[in-house]
Amino acid sequence: MLLIRTFEEALLQRHDHGFQLLSSGQEAVAVGLCAALQPGDPLLASGRSIGAALARGVEPRRVMAELLGKATGPCGGRGGRGHLAQPSAGFFGALALQLGGGADVVACIFGDGACGGGALHETLNLAALWRLPLLLVCDNNGYSVSTPRSEALAPKRLADLALAFGVPGRTVDGMDVLAVESAAVAFATLARSGGGPAFLECVSQRFASHSTAARETRSAAELLAARASCPILRLQQRLEAEGILSVERRAELEREVRSRVEEALRFADASPYPDPSALVHDGL
Amino acid sequence: MASEPLAGVKLFFREAIGRALRDEMARDRRIIVLGQDVGRFGGSYREFAGLYEQFGPERVRDMPVAEASMIGVGVGAAAAGLRPIVSITYMDFLMLGLDPLVNYAAKLRFKTGGQLAAPMVVKTTAGAKGQGVAHSQCLEAWVMSVPGLKIVAPSTAADAYGLLKSALREEGPVVFVDHKRLFPTAGEVPQGDGSVPIGKALIRRRGSDVTIATHSYMCRVAEEAAQRLAADGVSCEVLDLRSLAPLDMSTLCESAARTKALLTLEEGQLPCGVGAEVAFRVQAELGALRVGRVGALPVPVASSPILEAACLPDAERVSVEVRRLLSTHEVTPAKRGSA
Amino acid sequence: MILKLVVPGSIEDAEELRVLEWHGTVGQRFAARELIVELETHKAVVEIRAAQQAILRRVLAEAGSWQKPGDALALLSDEPTEPLPATATGETLLVEFEVI
After folding, report:
1. What is the number of structural domains in chain C?
2. How far apart are CA A168 and CA A201, in angstroms?
3. For residue A281, what pLDDT is reported?
4. What is the reported pLDDT for B339?
5. Number of A:B CB contacts under 8 A?
6. What residues 223-262 of chain A have any CB closer than 8 A to a CB of chain B?
7. Which range is most confident: A68-72, B131-135, B185-189?
8. How far is the CA of B102 from the CAs of A78, A254, B52, B175, B196, in angstroms?
């Protein structure tokens, strides 16, 4: 979580950060979910892909290169944030549902905004019909850009959407990484044993606006309240209270993360841009 | 002569499709069929008849009426290593699946830098045959311009067989467009490999006065017009595009350079249509030549037989346009349904 | 009387048809409404039955062959020994057909 947060802070400081959807505040969802996945399980994410990619183990230097449009990104600079993908690491950004053949579990992270679209309901229907080992994780940060959940979606609990299809659903606190992990493990176990799909709703809060191009709609007070439930702080406080995390160890972790992020930036800056003359040849 | 098919067995158009699928599915276990009514029902045109019985429900799956997820599941399956063919019964409803087709299937290889690809076929039936405004459309032009997507359209049973085989062997997505009015037809299908390369047009009828570039069911309309015109001493060359993306510019230009007159013919709409692309591309290579286009009238195709017939190109309209094209050396004002 | 069995012209949506199966042999007497031959269109099977009793005398279109509406399929006759013409001529046999 620390890596994701530090990574994004460093990215934002650049003038060429580009069009980004940041995961800050929502780190616990991707991290908690990935703790329940095994190396061969594909993770499909949405446009809010940085947290998911890093949580899944894609190297920070590769993620940074892709976000900055460099040729050394996993997609050669062609995918960018919106379509970050590294199948070998079990990470597909913004892809459609898989047929589940081969993998134990396929996990898919999407936002509350996707819940109004027919594709989600079509997916739930098919996953239930075919008993696919599919874990649908709704990272519900309460807003579709500017529209609050209550004005966009009829169900108060988005996990209830799954019930119509006979798919088990649960709602957990998306700011509590251990709660997310625990629920993800339970559903992943169900899927691996042939129990079919599940829908895990994680109620989260984003710290920034929807994207770097979107205006913030929340008040200063609301933003302060969101920050107060920071998932990193929560875990940190718990670990400190239980004597697992010392002050020194915390400082050490922060240093390690900073160093990895700096290395990622150096790597990306030293990397070339993709060659435009190769565009048409590679396109197909 | 290039246009003579190899001796083979005469099959209904639907049987040629079924045979291609059967041959390829037996050869390649990765091929699966997804669509409405493709299983026990055997397809709306019986083009999938026997496949469910031979290959089972794992490989021949009926889907709910949900075109977006039908194609979406296809893309995902293809990315995961299978080779799906997704059947969209009416091309009109391909619209519901354009996002996964265009934003996922077509772009997958590019946006992942080559890490993933989507080898899949979307088979869909175009054309008007009395079923009304939302069950009659020819939308090939809408998908011709999508980078990463190949489009093929057979006009004969042999080409249905050959193009489908080739499509199923491609490493990226292919849209295979057949036509309602082709299903009652029959033709010789070669006994051997019989695959038809994508990107190759075929001269169906040799001629010297005008090249009629067309595809799918309109090839038969062009042939009929050519026969009528021949009686009046006008020699038409009928060129079956077979592949809309990529277009076979070599065959097109060779023909138009000889005849010095090009008439494009399509059942779809003219604005930004197949003919617009063909006409411009040929002229860009050869320089100015006499060019005309024939297509549907700019109205939805109603189910009433009188209205439907009035909307669509027929041999008579094609003949009139050929004569107009050959009688003038200047561009005449565009008429509705031709330009 | 020599009767000619032809492909009915009023089968919907049938441009070309394939002869599927003859349900009898030359010399056989068919009762009225007895199934004589099955044809295949691109989407259906068509059962052809004579509206009258007749004897099958010569098959002109073997199973597996392709025919068009109006094409001659067979010659039949009222009496078993009536001499057959060299070509496929005769009164068109009235038939009933059912699309399955």
Report:
1. 1
2. 11
3. 63
4. 56
5. 98
6. none
7. B185-189
8. 16, 43, 29, 11, 25
Chain C, window 66-85: residues with a beta carbon less than 8 angstroms from a chain B beta carbon: 66
Structural domains for chain B = 8-190 (3.40.50.970), 202-327 (3.40.50.920)
**The domain spanning residue C78 has which CATH number?**
2.40.50.100
pLDDT at A95 (0 to 100) = 34
Amino acid, single-letter form, for residue A228 = A
Of B72, B82, B26, B17, the closest CA to residue B44 belongs to B17
Query: Does A213 score more than 90 pLDDT?
Result: no
Residue spans of alpha helices (H) in chain A: 2-12, 27-34, 50-56, 60-67, 118-129, 149-152, 160-163, 177-192, 220-228, 231-241, 247-270, 279-283
Distances (CA, A) of B248 to A28, B161, B252, B254, C67: 53, 19, 6, 10, 35
Rounded to 10 deg, the angle between the A27-34 and A231-241 helix axes is 60
Q: CB-based burial of residue B132 (10 Å sphere; 0-12 exposed, 13-18 middle, 19+ buried)?
A: middle
For A40-96, write each residue's pLDDT tens digit: 888 999 889 999 999 999 999 999 999 999 999 998 888 888 888 888 887 764 333
Contacts of C16 in chain B (CB under 8 A): 12, 184-186
Confidence at residue A91, expressed as pLDDT on a 0 to 100 scale:
79
Mutation target to probe the B interface, by most B beta carbons within 10 A, among A126, A134, A136, A281 is A126
* Least CB–CB distance from C15: residue in B45, B46, B185: B185
Indicate which of B83, B104, B111, B174 best probes the interface with A, i.e. most A CBs within 10 Å of its own CB: B111
Pairing of strands A198-203, B8-12: unpaired
Distance CA B323, CA C3 (A): 47
- Residue A148 β-bridge partners: A143
Q: What is the interface pTM, i.e. ipTM, of the complex?
A: 0.87
Residue-range definition of the domain harbouring residue C49: 2-99
According to DSSP, residue A76 is labeled T
Contacts of A81 in chain B (CB under 8 A): none
The tokens describing A97, both together, are: 């549902």
Give which of A72, A75, A36 is closest to A56, Cα–Cα: A36
Q: Looking at residue A86, what is its pLDDT?
A: 84
Residue found by looking up tokens 């830098």 in the block: B113
CATH number for the segment(s) A2-275? 3.40.50.970
Confidence bin at A100 (pLDDT 50/70/90): very low
Mean pLDDT, all residues of chain A: 90
Q: What tokens were used for B99?
A: 């996002």
The 3-state DSSP class for residue A162 equals helix
Share of chain A above pLDDT 70, in %: 94
- Enumerate neighbours of C (3 or more CB pairs within 8 A): B
Count of other CB atoms within 10 angstroms of residue B53 = 11
